[in-house]
């Protein structure tokens, strides 16, 4: 039976950062990574951003060289089907077992699915292989429907418009894109960017299923509308993969694996990080984040903790997006239902502070403002009693 001092289930960003953190503190411990993905570890954000907009950036540039840099043994195409905490072993599909000293769950999330034919032209976008498929299908003649108005849907609609497919249609459930996060004026401006770049928007609608009709695909919406396309991209959300943790008897609440301030579960030899971890945050309370900054920071922290560090995880993650050359970043609770203080810096730069009922800043969004994240975190850690004092904090 194969055995590792440190075993990581999941081959994404978390596993890379965790492996590096382990190696910094333990030069000789063996590290194993069991990845269900068919590729070596890569950086996921590029799949909907840089690989589409930077012609000099390649898939090879997106690979993270985890094994080469850390000595970790990475097994791809390895699907773990169970964890036996008492024996400190995991079982793979096919029956092989792997023993561990300390285990990190970095299982990530699966795309939410709707009924659809088994056709490569229906892309439930999540992996590098999905990117390869969509890039191959995104021909100048292609009519593409993108289902879902969240980060992935928005970024892929913008990316597809940017590479010049024949038609891009984005179906989303809101009235304006990003209306649950952006103040109304910014949401209007953001939505207008898409229409100005040729993206057809279908608002207030959800897709119920995708059907094949001759050589075409048809997205059937909740009001019965039928939209015809050559390619359908589904980006309607992701569900954290917590099934292994739950079956192993670990505490799972509100869709996440509950961990302490060291990202340790209620089993002393098992940690969790990334999409699946439900952790205590000084600003947000117990929370869960499915963004790249959280994956990186929690991966580093979990790896260090596994290797003996007693440093608590205190990182409040930021999240970001970029479409049509415009980038925004945010930290904390950024919900448009909160009171907001908007601080325009110039025509294309804006800071939005989100306030709770007492007027205390609980979130910050920076539109077009570089290097604002650290100051945003400082604001949230010690917000002024008078919101007007926020106006000069981020410039």
Outline the secondary-structure elements:
Blueprint: E1 2-9, H1 13-25, E2 31-34, H2 50-53, H3 59-62, H4 66-70, E3 73-75, E4 80-84, E5 89-92, E6 97-105, E7 109-111, E8 122-124, H5 128-137, E9 143-147, H6 151-162, E10 167-171, H7 184-196, E11 199-202, E12 207-213, E13 216-221, E14 226-229, E15 231-234, E16 238-240, H8 243-247, E17 252-253, E18 256-258, E19 270-272, E20 277-281, E21 285-287, H9 292-306, E22 318-323, E23 326-332, E24 339-346, E25 349-355, E26 361-367, H10 373-381
Parallel strand pairs: 1-2, 1-6, 2-3, 6-19, 8-15, 9-10, 9-15, 10-11, 18-20
Antiparallel strand pairs: 4-5, 5-6, 7-16, 12-13, 13-14, 17-18, 20-21, 22-23, 23-26, 24-25, 25-26
Task: Name some characteristics of this structure.
10 helices, Enolase-like, domain 1, FAD/NAD(P)-binding domain, 32% strand, alpha/beta, 3 domains, 395 residues
End-to-end separation in angstroms reads: 57 Å
Q: DSSP strand (E) fraction?
A: 25-35%
Number of helices: 10
Enter the CATH topology name of the largest domain: FAD/NAD(P)-binding domain
**Contiguous runs where pLDDT drops below 50 for at least 5 residues:** none
Mean pLDDT over the full residue set: 97
Radius of gyration: 22 Å
Structural class: alpha/beta
The CATH class of the largest domain turns out to be Alpha Beta
Tell me the CATH architecture of the largest domain: 3-Layer(bba) Sandwich
Biggest sheet, open or closed, and with what strands and sense? Answer: 7 strands, mixed
General form: globular
- Name of the CATH superfamily of the largest domain: FAD/NAD(P)-binding domain
Relative helix content: 10-25%
Tally of individual domains:
3
Got a strand count? 26
């Amino acid at each position: 039976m194969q055995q590792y001092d440190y075993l990581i289930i999941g081959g994404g960003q978390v596993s890379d950062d965790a492996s590096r953190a382990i190696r910094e503190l333990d030069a000789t411990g063996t590290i194993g990574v069991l990845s269900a993905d068919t590729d070596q570890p890569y950086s996921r954000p590029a799949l909907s951003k840089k690989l589409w907009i930077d012609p000099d950036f390649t898939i090879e540039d997106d690979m993270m060289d985890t094994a080469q840099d850390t000595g970790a043994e990475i097994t791809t195409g390895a699907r773990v089907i169970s964890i036996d905490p008492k024996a400190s072993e995991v079982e793979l599909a096919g029956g092989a077992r792997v023993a561990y000293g300390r285990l990190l769950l970095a299982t990530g999330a699966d795309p939410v699915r709707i009924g659809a034919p088994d056709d490569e032209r229906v892309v439930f976008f999540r992996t590098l292989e999905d990117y390869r498929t969509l890039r191959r299908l995104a021909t100048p003649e292609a009519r593409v429907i993108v289902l879902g108005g969240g980060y992935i849907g928005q970024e892929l609609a913008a990316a597809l418009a940017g590479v010049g497919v024949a038609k891009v249609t984005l179906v989303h459930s809101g009235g304006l894109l990003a209306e649950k996060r952006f103040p109304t004026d910014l949401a209007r401006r953001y939505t207008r960017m898409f229409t100005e770049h040729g993206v057809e928007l279908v608002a207030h609608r959800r897709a119920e299923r995708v059907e094949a009709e001759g050589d075409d695909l048809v997205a059937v919406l909740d009001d019965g509308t039928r939209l015809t396309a050559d390619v359908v991209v589904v980006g309607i959300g992701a569900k954290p993969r917590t099934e292994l943790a739950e079956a192993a008897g670990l505490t799972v609440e509100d869709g996440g694996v509950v961990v302490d301030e060291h990202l340790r579960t209620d089993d002393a030899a098992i940690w969790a990080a990334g999409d699946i971890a439900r952790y205590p945050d000084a600003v947000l309370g117990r929370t869960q984040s499915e963004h790249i900054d959280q994956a990186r920071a929690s991966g580093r922290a979990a790896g260090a903790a596994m290797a003996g560090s007693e440093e608590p995880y205190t990182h409040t993650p930021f999240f970001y997006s970029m479409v049509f050359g415009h980038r925004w970043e945010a930290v904390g609770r950024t919900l448009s239902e909160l009171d907001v203080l908007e601080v325009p810096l110039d025509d294309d730069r804006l800071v939005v502070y989100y306030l709770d009922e007492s007027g205390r800043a609980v979130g910050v969004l920076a539109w077009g403002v570089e290097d604002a994240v650290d100051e945003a975190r400082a604001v949230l850690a010690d917000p002024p009693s008078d919101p007007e004092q926020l106006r000069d904090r981020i410039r």
